[in-house]
Amino acid sequence: MLYGLSKLVPFSAAEFRGPWSGRPLRRPWRASLRKILPLETVPVGLLLLTITAGCAQPHKADNDLNRMTLKRRAMECLTAAIRYQANPVVRVEAVEALESSGCKEGLPWIRAALRDDHPAVRFAACVAVGRCADPVALENVRKCVDDHDASVQVAALFALHHLGQTWQTGRIPTYLLNHDDVTVRRNAALILGLLDEPGAVKVLARAMRDRDAGVRQHALEAMARFGNREARQELAFMTNAGIGSEEVFAIGALAQTGDPVYLETFRYKLATATHLETRLAAARGLGRLGSDEGFETALKALRTRKPLIDDTNDPPAGQILRVRQMAAAALGVIVRAEALPALGELMEDPADPRVQVSAARAILEILEADRERALPFGPAE
Fold this sequence. Notes:
It contains 20 helices and no strands. By secondary structure, the protein is mostly helical.
């Protein structure tokens, strides 16, 4: 999710300093996160070994039970994370993970997040409600239209649109083209890209003249999603920019289109890119197109504990976080059960709750994968 939270909430390797208090929490945050994953059930290592060896198990019922247990544990992780008050970033990512998983059990938690005290969480919840088209949340979404935060207002209009109340959707372009706050304009570009309204391309094209590079990037991504040829050509050019962040953005944007024409582009970047994050973006793009060619790259990166480069502007902890989250995201769309042990281990590691959330999300995406993917432990329920 965009919103700009990366500048709001710093983390350290040892403890979390609250962004508003200016002082450390009374106890190390990594210890408090153990509550995310209660350990009163079957040891996860044994559970995962049983699941991934599902083909050799004599009773399918046992495999289904293990699968349900792992799913429950991942849901416990996410529902604990969505209540994690020390950092709104964790709550935002938990909302996104619950929506992405497709599990109906997550809807009550997403609805509750509409009333969160941080606007970024409310923004994420409105987007999730809209993508799920959850009618039960309608009343609270209406309240968010009058939120004091303009980005939340935009996300609420998006949710109303997908709940069939489209008469206010025309307000969204105003936020993109006229709002003074650059974060609001960026979020409006993101929302327009998710609307599935081809007419938005004209508005997005005007936003390409915005003075902020971030607004232009998200407008470009949205236009590519709508099939705009010039936008896709520009993104394809950017995949060879030689700048890691630009390549990652461009590959991710092209992957969102779901167009198989970029299969060879992703293969090439997976094989040749010097930047690991570029290779992980390519692995995820391949996964979205049904290829597991990036599986080994993602699985190895999931365990990384060393920074990629020595850069004073890019702290080691931030590099490691990005790599592990991108690796988990790639494994979630590649959908191979062999990734479950490593993801399960990461989900139980309290070193960083954001990584726990990424691992839990990937586990749920694998377990909830389409029946046609024919996982060895049986189809999703």
